[in-house]
Amino acid sequence: MALAQPASDGLPPQRAAPLRGSLATTACMETLQVGYLHAVAAAAGCSLSQPFPDNGIDWHVSHSAPDHTVDDEVTIKVQLKCTYQLPPRTRRDASGAFSFTLDNEHLVKLARTPVAVHKILVVMLVPRDREDWLRAGHERLDLRHCCYWINLAGHPVTGRRRTTVRIPTTRIFDDRALCEIMARVGVGGRP
Prior knowledge:
The chain starts with 24 loop residues before the first helix and ends in a 5-residue tail after the last helix. The mean pLDDT is 89. The chain has helices at 25-44, 104-111, 175-186, and strands at residues 47-49, 59-64, 73-83, 97-103, 119-125, 134-136, 141-143, 146-150, 162-168. The chain is 21% helix and 27% strand. By secondary structure, it is of the alpha+beta class.
């Protein structure tokens, strides 16, 4: 019996497609982005809480640090979105951003200013095929593709029902970015 050897990237070779459950793709995308948020929050040393009912905000992320001056613990609100309609690096323009369309009702909530608790939008881009979402190996878990974040405070509503916003691809949402966001908020700044 021959054993499968890991690929040069350290991950095991792709196997035949498994029988996946019948949960709607959009529900699976929502679960995947929540897993991404949990991983980022864990690595950043943040706690998560989910408001009930959510009223247009998916998560509250809190961060405690002795260097915070406004309080010993600061919190931001996070709205998650996920799409497979924008492949990474292919529909970006020269400015290094991609377009994402929000219902005006959601944008108004995210764009409100001033606020007591800052809000960010986190948009995850995933491959269209669920088979390509993740691969696990002995040394790492590859989750594709990426989440990007933006603070939309003060952003104008420009469409009748929906407004397109530009998400900079320089703002990758990872543990370092979350720590930097919390450090700024912790001294009274914006995300």
